[in-house]
Design a protein that fits this description.
Elements (H helix, E strand, L loop, with lengths): L3 E5 L2 E5 L2 E4 L7 E4 L2 E5 L7 H22 L1 H4 L4 H15 L1 E7 L2 E6 L14 E5 L3 H4 L6 H6 L9 H8 L3 H13 L3 E5 L6 E4 L3 H6 L1 H11 L10 H10 L6 H8 L8 H10 L3 E4 L1 E5 L16 H6 L12 E5 L1
Antiparallel strand pairs: 1-2, 2-5, 3-4, 6-7, 8-9, 10-11, 12-13
Length: 323
């Protein structure tokens, strides 16, 4: 089978032209093709997930035609079949079709996502889907235990402590959720964190959907009037890496304006509007510490949550690098 993919305008068209040879066919052969038309924004490296489904459909159709000749004789409702496959794959990424009493087709789109990044102990998992509606008794017991603790506040180490699950098992479970795009990982929220606005602030200024989501997310008390988007947008623009988030939100009087500072920061980070500015302590007393906590290679979060967390990062005179 030869797979053909072609970029047409703003879409991808991929298909597998298939043919059968037999004297019963006009000119002794029958050609047919099943195609997917995908959004042009789909990266070419992700086409493999759809190619695998196409190849399986081609095999199913070939086998079905050889056994029944339904495609050639027009006795088969191909349009209804295609409509069901389309609906099932769009809604559920899988389709199970009972064509007749002898033929049952099983199709599933399995995306080849990139390997997730390494998870740090100080990072906080943020659910981006409704995990509790997805989980069932067949899921891994470790994941079933972890998911109720994914609340947007607890960091990885805290989840391990509260569930009494070994830290490596917690990390493995979270990596699975990260791989399947169920969660995102962000740095733990501290009042002393520093953030800076990114160039993605333009998207917030241009997207009405993102603006509506922003205002509905950062609200502190839903019984009070919602803050206006221009106000929230102005706060993002004013955020400077030179100030801690505590200094910033107190100066801007977030609570009086019905804005939750934690939600404000989390929304900004998840949507690429804000970037955390990390602090790296560096000893200035010479060569006494070359590879330790104040070598300039570890951030404060990594020091506090690392294996040598008992060692204070303020033991010696130091300077701080921001990056």
């Amino acid at each position: 089978m030869l797979l053909i993919d072609r970029r047409c305008s703003d879409s991808w068209v991929i298909g597998i032209p298939t043919h059968l040879f037999h004297s019963k066919y006009f000119r002794n052969e029958l050609w047919f093709n099943f195609c997917f038309i995908l959004d042009g924004e789909v990266e070419s490296k992700h086409l493999g997930a759809y190619e695998a489904v196409l190849r399986k459909i081609a095999v199913y159709l070939t086998s079905f035609e050889v056994e029944t000749t339904s495609l050639y004789s027009d006795d088969f409702n191909v349009g209804g079949l295609l409509e069901q496959i389309f609906h099932d794959l769009v809604e559920n990424s899988e389709s199970i079709i009972e064509v007749d009493s002898s033929h049952k087709w099983y199709l599933r789109i399995i995306h080849n996502w990139e390997e997730p990044k390494e998870i740090e102990l100080h990072e906080v998992p943020i659910s981006i889907v409704n995990l509790r509606s997805l989980v069932n008794s067949e899921w891994d017991l470790c994941l079933q235990t972890i998911i109720p603790h994914i609340d947007g506040i607890k960091h990885v180490k805290k989840i391990a402590e509260d569930t009494s699950i070994p830290i490596n098992n917690v990390i493995d479970g979270l990596r699975n959720l990260l791989y399947y795009k169920c969660i995102k990982m962000i740095d733990i929220f501290h009042q002393t964190n520093r953030y800076r606005v990114t160039q993605n602030i333009r998207e917030l200024a241009q997207s009405q959907d993102l603006q509506d989501a922003c205002v509905s997310t950062v609200i502190l008390d839903r019984s009070l009037p919602m803050p206006s988007f221009p106000l929230v947008f102005a706060f993002y623009c004013k955020l400077q890496s030179g100030n801690t988030i505590q200094q910033f939100y107190k100066k801007q009087e977030f609570e009086k304006r019905n804005i939750d500072v934690r939600k404000f920061v989390i929304f900004g980070v998840l949507n690429g509007i804000l970037r955390r500015v990390h602090e790296y302590p560096l000893s200035n007393i010479g060569d006494n510490i070359k590879e330790g906590s104040e070598s300039g290679n570890l951030s404060y979060d990594e020091i506090y949550f690392g294996p040598n967390q008992a060692a204070s990062p303020h033991r010696y005179p130091r300077i701080t690098i921001y990056k």
